[in-house]
Design a protein that fits this description.
Immunoglobulin-like, 2 domains, seven-stranded antiparallel β-sheet, five-stranded antiparallel β-sheet, 225 residues, 2 helices
């Protein structure tokens, strides 16, 4: 797992450097051929001014140094990403808390976790599919604090939905009807670590979430309804 993640990061970094070096080498070879031809055919009694091609040589040297610096920077970034990816593997098998408003339906079961900063008069938990259609909604616990709602995977129409990732909203109101800000989270066991487009992804409850959304590593899940 770790080697596969590292090789992906390495390929991306080395590919960019190789392309830059190849372009520079081709351009520099062309410049030298033109310069050599000019020197061979110049008028001995009126030699060409060396200022221009000397300036160009200096410019090529500066470009070469910039490419080397970029290559070194890519190497440092690659090392940091590889280290981050390798460390992320240690989360496999652990229960983590991630920020996010999604729920993963795995084997017909999903866990929705939310937090209320104060008591509410009513809480409505709604689940939407990938097309933005609401497939399920129900009342949630209204007390201040953390709450866990276990979803059996059935829609409001009584259909057992396919496993996958669903979008969640939690709407809460106080006794005066004013909206209460809620916080949704994903809590579950990390089962897999991936690396894609420069981002380390943790698979939790069947859905992939960026490592940057990790907020807490827990000894056990929050218990709830």
């Amino acid at each position: 797992m770790t080697s596969a993640i590292g090789s992906t990061a390495s390929s991306a970094a080395s590919g960019a450097s190789a392309a830059a070096k190849a372009t520079f080498g081709s351009n520099f070879d062309t410049f030298l051929k033109i310069l050599t031809t000019q020197l061979q055919h110049q008028d001995p009694t009126s030699p060409m001014d060396t200022t221009t091609f000397t300036t160009q040589l200096v410019q090529f040297s500066q470009v070469e140094q910039s490419i080397k610096q970029n290559s070194n920077l890519e190497t440092l970034i690659q090392m940091q990403q590889n280290s981050q990816a390798a460390n992320a593997v240690n989360y496999i098998g652990k229960t983590v808390e991630m920020t996010g408003d999604t729920v993963g339906l795995v084997n017909g079961q999903g866990t929705i976790t939310y937090t209320l900063p104060q008591d509410a008069s009513r809480v409505i938990v709604s689940v939407y599919n990938q097309d933005g259609q609401m497939v399920m909604h129900q009342d949630g616990e209204t007390g201040q604090g953390d709450h866990v709602l276990t979803w059996n995977g059935y829609s409001d129409a009584g259909t057992h939905l396919q496993d996958g990732s669903y979008y969640v909203t939690v709407s809460a109101q106080d006794s005066a009807g004013a909206a209460i800000q809620t916080t949704s989270r994903v809590i579950g066991e990390v089962t897999k670590v991936d690396y894609a487009a420069g981002t380390v992804l943790l698979t939790v409850n069947g859905i992939q979430l960026p490592l940057a959304q990790l907020s807490t590593v827990r000894n056990s899940p929050i218990s709830g309804t």
